[in-house]
Amino acid sequence: MNFLRGVMGGQQSSGPQPSGAETIQKLCDRVASSTLLDDRRDAVRALKSLSKKYRLEVGTQAMDHLLNVLQTDRSDSEIIGFALDTLYNIISNDAEETEENQQVQSDDLAVQFAEVFIKQQENITLLLSILEEFDFHVRWPGVKLLTALLKHQGPQVQQIVLVSPMGVSRLMDLLDDSREVIRNDGLLLLQQLTKSNAAIQKIVAFENAFERLLDIITEEGNSDGGIVVEDCLLLLQNLLKYNNSNQNFFKEGSYIQRMKPWFEVGDDNSGWSAQKVTNLHLMLQLVRVLVSPVNPPGATSSCQKSMFQCGLLQQLCIILMATGVPADILTETINTVSEVIRGSQINQDYFASVNAPSNPPRPAIVVLLMSMVNERQPFVLRCAVLYCFQCFLYKNQKGQGEIVSTLLPSTIDATSLSAGQLLCGGLFSTDSLSNWCAAVSLAHALLENSTQKEQLLRVQLATSIGNPPVSLLQQCTNILSQGDKINRRGSKMQARVGLLMLLCTWLTNCPIAVTHFLHNAANVPFLTGQISENQGEEEHLVQGLCALLLGICIYYNDNSLENNTKEKLKQLIEKRIGKENFTEKLGFITKHEYYSKAAQKPQPIFSSPDQMMFDHEFTKLVKELEAVITKAIYKSSEEDKKEEEAKKSLEQQDSIISHYKSVIREQDLQMEELKQTVTSLQAKNEQFQTTISQQLAQIQQHKDQYNLLKVQLGKDSQHHNSSAQMNGFQPEEVTRLKEEMEELRKQHDSLEGELSEKNALIETLKQGQVVAEIVQPAGESEQIADLKKEMETLRSQLQVQSTEINRLQAERMEFLQTIENNAPASASGVHTVSASPKNTELEEKVGTLVQEITTLKGELKSLSEEKSSLMQQLDTAQSTAAILQDEKRKMQQELTESKKEQDDLLVLLADQDQKIFSLKKKLKELGEPVDDEDEDLESGDAGDLDDDDDDDYEDDEAINDDEAGREDD
């Protein structure tokens, strides 16, 4: 124990003191050889105290012994904690170093010790299992040790954790620890674990990390929280940045809605702590991660839509227009709003409707543009406003039209400040940065929008009092040429580049603008002069842009000006500049260092105003035009003519194709209409057929009734006439007969009405047939022909029926006339006797006739019912017959198969008999006795078998004949 006291700074002995290496060696021997746990614990505690001062010695001599302690002494939490602290001290860089060289050596030493530790993967697995211990003195140093290992050997440790069973899940449990120290260090551990590893990021997100982290941020007070909120936001960025799967999971989990409270900063913006600024800055960056232009378009648009629906965009616009917001937060908010509205029409429309809280209220776009063209504003803020304006116009033709319309003479309002007026003011101001920003903004208002390019040609500017107004295009070229004469220094280079970019964007794919530009005779000489001069490297960029502008004038020239046709401009280049020199100057643009920087990201990020030379969208335009302009310069006039002819032929073909497309579209519509017409005609035809069949049945029924009545009335009339000749009719009988006549007339009228309805239906069908014959397509003629046949059949049936009805009507009229001729005589007769026996008999006969008629009607009704029931039974019988037919077919198939099997058996038996016969023959030849009776018996059996088979075959044929006869019946 005296030895340990000397090591720990106790009472010093008078002898020579051992060196640090010797002391560490003795302590390591004690850890390895001591059998008592207390001795090993004291030795490990001593190593911990020496590990910071003698880091190299402890790391080289004691690491293996400490790892052995972690494996063998798991039951004692105290010694495990000492061992973990010791390993952490030798692997981490927490020790304060005063000199830079010592710090570098410390970093190298930490990396080497971390590499030694992870050489055996079991060490990481052992450390992960130790982290499951709840003891604070074990868990906390374990978390710190694993974090240090991730800092120095991140990819290797990540791979080991990834393949360890439940490795990530064990580390996620640290976020649920009730002790804030372990939870906070667990956040730092997960930050290191999720760096640049998409697989671990997905697993962590699947372990409900988003929910836990957002809960912690809410508990800590959102943007007003401390450094824990910052750690949570950094971890969220690691999980979401460049990870489309996690971004989609974050959106679908409705976590975007939980971000809105982060930006509720309140009305009092006077006091912003440094931590709050940091937290809000990270929150804005997290929003930008979800809507970054580098994300897939579908994922970005869905996140933009969610942010608008939950009110997050509205909250950001409130911060944007608030007062007292720090400059860096305001700049980042502008950049965030820019990417939230970029390419989203609904978000762009909302942003256009936002007004600043001023008196009078002004649109937010106007307020932002005022900051952009104000040279006293910070450079980063002006860049942010430019990016916001570019995102507002990105794929937004409606917004482009609104900006350009503020420059047109018919919409200019002298009392209010518009976006177009601010851009024109910045375009012609004395500040080069304002010139460049205004030119780029106007160029974005014209991108891929030929309509607005033509509209901008109408803009007229009043340069000075007494001088006529000039167009905006002419003023840009005037400033460009005058500025070149006055000053070519770097301060004006930026403005000239901006104007050239605007002109190139304006003239691209707009022949009318090219004609306006070439109409000014001074423009082409200015461009050729700029290109042909041998100037320094600082002018190479302007020369390249002038070459690009001249090439656009050639490529998009419609040859409307005789003095500046394509061929004449090419000849001018060849004489004044030279084709090779022209292409070389054109290549100066893409070779410039600022071009490659601007082509990387849509957001303009520059360290100083002098570096603002190129716009991201303009770099895309240059990439598209460079090849086609170079090709156009070397083309001959014949090739140009051929190309124009090819373009014309293509245009003609396109027009022909479009014409045929329209014709085909019309024919498709006509076909659909005809199909619908045919379908309706078929339905009507079916209805007519059913109606006609019903009417035929009714006519037949009426015909039968009429015949019965005719027969009965004929008999009664004969008897009545004989009695009338003798005694005369009674007046009551005549009245009753007249009533019956009236009923018959009514029936006749109803029949005539039905006949007229049928005739009207026939006429309708005829008209429909004529229309169908006119508009029917080629493929439907057969259906119309069938309809014609059916109509002819129905027409013939109706004609037959009409003739029959006419015949019956004639007979009926004759009968009625006979009755009417006899009635007066009987009525005026003198020999009328009341209650005579003959009259009584006549009344009885008439009554019996009426009863018979009623009875016949009932019988007809019952017969019709029996007929319907018989029809149902017939349908049932037909379905039963179909089922029996199927069964019969199956039985015939089975019978055929059994016949085949019997034939096969007969063949086998015949072969067997033949073999037996041959064997017996051989036996006889060899002298063996053979029983003749068996032979006869076998031959008889074979004959019987054959006879039986023949009988069976005959029986089967008879059965088949019977079944065939039944089927015929």
Notes on the structure:
- Helix 4 runs antiparallel to helix 5 (77-91) and helix 19 (327-341) packs parallel to helix 22.
- With 969 residues, the chain is mainly alpha-helical.
- The protein is built from 41 helices and four strands.
- The longest helix has 90 residues, at 637-726.
| Strand-pairing-aware structural class | mainly alpha
* CATH level-4 homologous superfamily of the domain at 462-645: Leucine-rich Repeat Variant
- Just name the CATH architecture of the domain at 462-645: Alpha Horseshoe
CATH top-level class of the domain at 462-645: Mainly Alpha
Number of strands: 4
Please indicate the percent range of residues in DSSP E strands (runs of 2 or more). under 5%
Strand sequence of the main sheet, in spatial order?
1-2
Oligomer: single chain
Rg (C-alpha, Å): 54 Å
Query: What count of helical segments does DSSP give?
Result: 41
The poorly predicted ranges are: 1-15, 95-101, 485-491, 722-730, 768-781, 823-839, 933-969
Task: Estimate the global geometry from the Cα principal axes.
Answer: extended
